[in-house]
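TICKET: design request
STATUS: open
ATTACHED STRUCTURE:
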C-alpha cells in the first residue's frame, strides 16, 4: 500500500466521520473509485482510532467529568454516564458475536453502495 493511499483515506475519514454519512462506507468504496488495492479492515480500524484520539483530546474535560460521574452518585453526570455504558453494551455485544459476518457481509462494496444511496434518498426526502 502506498503512502498516498493512506493519506487520501485519512483525509476521507476525517472529513466524513462527523457528517451524517458513513465514513466506513466511504473508506470501503474509495479504493474502487481510485483504483487502489483494498486497504482491509486493519487500516480502517487505525483510521477510526485516529478519529477516536482526536475526540478524546478535544473532549477530555467533558469525558473526565462523565467518567468521574460513574463513581459519584451526587454528580449530575452519574445517570448520563451509566446511560452511556448501558447504550454501548448492545453494540459491543453485537460486534463481538457477529464480527465475522460483519467483516464479510457489511464490507461488500455493492451492499455499501446500495445502503449509501438508500439513506441519501431518505435524508434528501427528510
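STATUS: resolved
RESOLUTION: sequence designed for all positions
ATTACHED SEQUENCE:
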Amino acid at each position: 500500500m502506498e503512502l498516498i493511499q493512506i493519506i487520501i483515506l485519512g483525509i476521507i475519514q476525517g472529513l466524513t466521520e462527523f457528517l451524517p454519512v458513513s465514513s466506513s462506507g466511504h473508506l470501503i468504496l474509495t479504493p474502487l473509485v481510485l483504483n487502489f488495492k483494498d486497504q482491509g479492515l486493519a487500516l480502517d480500524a487505525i483510521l477510526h482510532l485516529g478519529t477516536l484520539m482526536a475526540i478524546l483530546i478535544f473532549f477530555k474535560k467533558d469525558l473526565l467529568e462523565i467518567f468521574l460521574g460513574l463513581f459519584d452518585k451526587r454528580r449530575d453526570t452519574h445517570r448520563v454516564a451509566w446511560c452511556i455504558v448501558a447504550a454501548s453494551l448492545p453494540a459491543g455485544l453485537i460486534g463481538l458475536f457477529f464480527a465475522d459476518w460483519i467483516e464479510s457481509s457489511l464490507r461488500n462494496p455493492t451492499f455499501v453502495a446500495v445502503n449509501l444511496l438508500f439513506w441519501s434518498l431518505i435524508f434528501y426526502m427528510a
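CLOSING REMARK: The first helix runs from residue 3 to 16. The helical segments are 3-16, 23-33, 40-58, 60-69, 77-97, 99-105, 109-125.
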